[in-house]
Amino acid sequence: MDMEFSPEDLAFQQEVRQFIAENYPAELRGKQDEGEELSKEDFLAWHKILHKKGWIAPAWPVEYGGTGWTPTQRFIWSEETARADCIRLMPFGLAMVGPVIYTFGTPEQKAHFLPRILSGEDWWCQGYSEPGSGSDLASLRTTAVSDGDDYIVNGQKTWTTLAQHADWGFFLVRTDKDAKQQEGISFLLIDMKSPGITVRPIITLGGEHEVNEVWLEDVRVPKSQRVYEENKGWTCAKFLLAHERTGIAGVAASKRGIEKVKQIARTELDGDKPLIANAFFKRKLADLEVDLTALEFTELRSLAGANAGKGPGPESSLLKIKGSEIQQRLTELTLEAVGHYGAPYFRGFGEGDNEHPIGPDYAHRAAPTYFNMRKTTIYGGSNEIQRNIIAKMVLGL
Amino acid sequence: MDFTYTETQDMIRDTLARFLGDTYDFEMRQKFINSDSGRDPAIWTALAQELGMLGASFAEEHGGLGGGALENAIVMEELGKVIGIEPYLPTVVIAGGALKAVGGAQADAMIPEIIAGNAIIAFAYAEPQGRYDLGNLRTTAKKDGAGYVLNGHKGVVYAAPWATHLLVTARTGGDQRDRDGVSLFLIDANLPGIVRRDYPTVDGNRASEIYFENVAIPGDALLGGEGAGLPIIEQTVDEATVAVCAEATGVMQKLHEGTLEYTQQRKQFGVPIAKFQVLQHRMVDMFMEVEQARSMTIMGTLKLGLPANERMAAVSAAKAKVGRGANFVGQNAIQTHGGIGITQELAIGHYFKRATIIEGQFGSVDHHMDRYERIVLAD
Questions:
Q1: Tens of pLDDT, residues B7-66
Q2: In angstroms, what is the C-alpha Rg of chain A?
Q3: Share of chain A above pLDDT 90, in %
Q4: Residues B219, B264: contact at Cβ < 8 Å?
Q5: What angle in degrees, to the nearest 10, is found between the helix axes of B347-360 and B308-337?
Q6: Residue B118 near chain A (CB below 8 Å)
Q7: ∠ CA B183-B188-B193 to the nearest 5 degrees?
Q8: Closest chain A CA to residue B368
Q9: Which pLDDT belongs to residue A1?
Q10: Average pLDDT of A27-43?
Q11: Which of A355, A361, A377, A384 is best to mutate for the B interface (most B CBs within 10 A)?
């Protein structure tokens, strides 16, 4: 047992650092901290650079466009991108529907969709949750009725992240009303420009337009856009949920987050000393670092399992629970650190408005981010559901 | 020992609750907080003139109902229940409290204006470098003939965009963090040299950055003795802190009730989610926090009249307990609602936002635990 990177890994780390330093777009540097909502173009700028380099999908099999990196190299990659504060890549194509398509899709689906996911040509969104189906996802009621070579889809989806930008969506729909809940669901790829689709914004507590309602009224979808067998969509859904949970620990991003809080605490004053000298605050930071180290080494053990060829198992629920709690504590500590200047509400830079936000730069997104990050213990299977999974699958209760 | 409210106090609560029920439902609130001015001035006028509510905590000789801190707590709790943005805290509790403390001609002149609803007074005390230390001041008031000249920057002054007057803390002597040399001034909000930058706050209020640029103020704007203002300011802020605990109690009660109601309607896996024991226990824990917040608010309110050290220990105990409770109840209300709790559409998220700001208002949990320890656990 050892925890050292091999000489090859260290060389790879150097290569990655150099690539980021030379290629990460200058205009994106720090932009996500400046309180601006990132545009579709912002997200795609970095995506396209990585695509050109061939590094856009490290987790994919090489035959579909992956990098062939070892899990350790992938770990280094995520560490280094977080360390350099690179904007995150949208997971819907790369981490979600892409793996479903290369695992379950037809040769035609693979040939058509995978290159477009890699290039960033198609922006994807996820049509899973419904107003009546959150934690109990399998109770979903959106229907797809067979009509010759097509399905006619009707229903409503919700919490659809960045659907306002999406070209395509992957949807769970009910194709058999009489079967047991999980056995009547199919997995469809739907063109978001299809007639009958309406996307309506949901504004969240920080004022962001991040999620949407998606209404489907008599939307015609060719059966060739169904992934895997009819009524077997739940298999794809379970596969994808496990995938979603592994990335959700967010260790590298939280490490970077702790550095940012420290920086704030070195700047903010508490009497005649910086806030970081306050014993209570310092202890909370230390607690957070200790918990993050525990999460990191739990993830590394899981990674070592992946190196040995074991897929993500129920332990990914542990990573999701602890990772999301740490992300939330970070936002809480940031808000605490900025004191009075957590209260002003910064609405972003309006057209022609170049007035500087109120208070220090690091303060004006503190409260909205704290509010927004409450989602992390709710989405991707709420933490209550994750605990149920551990109780059932790990403890056998 | 008696923890019952008087008939008059019950009447104040009932009258206010009925009025707010009619004028302050969630949709109405959203409408006026999103309007240009961010408020509906008719509500303040009605509170003053139709309900006589702004006089509840003032002496009869000033035209009030003869109440005090308990009446303030009642009003603040009811405002908390509707996440009200009325400037009762800075105008009545803080400026009114300071005026009662100094008495004299200034109190005789201004308190009737507050009661009538003519005066809205914002409390300009916080400075960017000062955190929760009331005496950490860079704003200066220099003697100039019979008056003073004010210079400095006050941050996040709630209700300042609506204010007719400002209650300002400034240094007339001493160094930035000295206890001596702090003075309190009540000034007209529109004096030449006062520059404001107004903005909304995340909890639905309006506030300003205020810059004093050689503002000439009259000598009679000084409240209390020159350079001896800190004890009055501390007393007043303690009263305000307990009033915020009362508001928090109202906010937390609504967060808890809203969660109870939602979990009985929301079905997953074929049953209302309130049937799940893990959620039942969480809601029990929330309930216990609400009850303790109410207890600590009463404790703190009843001890406001004690000598400074006992008062400060009691207020800090109350605020620390309530701050933790507001955090717990707010976060768990959102978690239990799931995604819908994070949207602007439901009231619950707006209660959570107010609860969040209350946590830090007049001092975080750490700040108050620290003050409590210094007084109660001194070696």
A1: 999 999 999 999 999 999 999 999 999 999 999 999 999 999 999 999 999 999 999 999
A2: 22
A3: 75
A4: no
A5: 150
A6: no
A7: 85
A8: A280
A9: 65
A10: 76
A11: A384
Which residue, among A129, A378, A385, A390, would best test binding to B if mutated, counting the most B CBs under 10 Å from its CB? A378
Query: Could you tell me if B134 and B237 are in contact, meaning their C-beta atoms sit under 8 angstroms apart?
Result: yes
Name residues whose C-beta falls within 8 Å of residue B338's C-beta, 6 or more positions apart in sequence: A134, A135, A378, A382
pLDDT score at A252 = 85
Asked if B197 and A370 come within 8 Å (Cβ–Cβ), the reply is: no
Q: Which amino acid is at B97?
A: G
Query: Which residue type does A303 have?
Result: L
Beta bridge partners, A215, equal A156, A198
Nearest CA-CA distance, residue B217 and chain A, Å: 27
Q: Which residue has the tokens 């009497």?
A: A271
In this prediction, what percent of chain B has a pLDDT beyond 90?
99
- Give the DSSP H or E segment for B73: helix B69-81
pLDDT in tens, A186-208: 999 999 999 999 999 999 998 88
Buried b (16+ CB within 10 A) or exposed e, B293-309: bbebbbbbbebbeeeee
Window B:324-363, CB contacts with A under 8 Å: 331, 334-335, 338-339, 341-345, 349, 352-353, 356-357, 360
Judged against a pLDDT cut of 70, whether residue B230 lies above it is answered with yes
Residue A325 is a catalytic residue:
no
- Separation of alpha carbons A8 and A15, rounded Å: 10
pLDDT at A350 over 60: no
- Quick check: A340 and B156 CB within 8 A? yes
pLDDT single digits (tens) B281-304: 999 999 999 999 999 999 999 999
What is the C-alpha separation between B128 and B159, in angstroms, rounded? Answer: 18
Locate the chain B residue with the closest alpha carbon to A275: B131
Residue B126 at interface with chain A, using a CB cutoff of 8 Å: yes
A380 to chain B nearest CA, in Å? 11
Instruction: Pull the structure tokens for residue A271.
Output: 């009497």
Kindly state the average pLDDT of the residues A384-393. Answer: 93
Secondary structure letter of residue B275 according to DSSP: G
The answer to whether the CB of B335 falls within 8 A of the CB of A374 is yes
**Under a CB-based contact definition with an 8 Å cutoff, are residues B41 and B35 in contact?**
no
A251: nearest Cα among A57, A129, A80, A116: A80
Contact A296, A320 (CB under 8 A): no
User: Residue A5 — pLDDT band, cuts 50, 70, 90?
Assistant: confident
| CA distance to A261, B187, B220, B231, per residue, from A375 (Å) | 20, 45, 53, 44
Q: Number of C-alpha atoms within 13 angstroms, CB side, residue A27? A: 9
By Cβ distance, the residue of B130, B201, B345 closest to A343 is B201
| Helix %, strand %, coil % of chain B (to 5) | 55, 15, 25
ipTM of the complex: 0.95
Give the distance between the most distant pair of CA atoms in chain B: 78
pTM check: above 0.90: yes
CA–CA gap between residue B244 and residue B347 (Å, rounded):
20
- Computed on alpha carbons and rounded to an integer, the radius of gyration of chain B in Å comes to 21
Encode pLDDT of B180-224 as tens digits.
Answer: 999 999 999 999 999 999 999 999 999 999 999 999 999 999 999
> CA of A95: how far to CAs of A47, A89, A314, in Å?
13, 9, 18
Q: How many CB atoms lie within 10 A of CB A102?
A: 20
Burial class (CB in 10 A: 0-12, 13-18, 19+), B86: buried
pLDDT band of residue A380 (cuts 50, 70, 90) is: confident
Per-residue b or e along A7-28, where b marks 16 or more CB atoms closer than 10 Å to that residue's CB? eeeeebbeebeebbeeebeeeb
Query: Among residues B288, B317, B324, which one has the least CA distance to residue B300?
Result: B317
d(CA A47, CA A62): 18
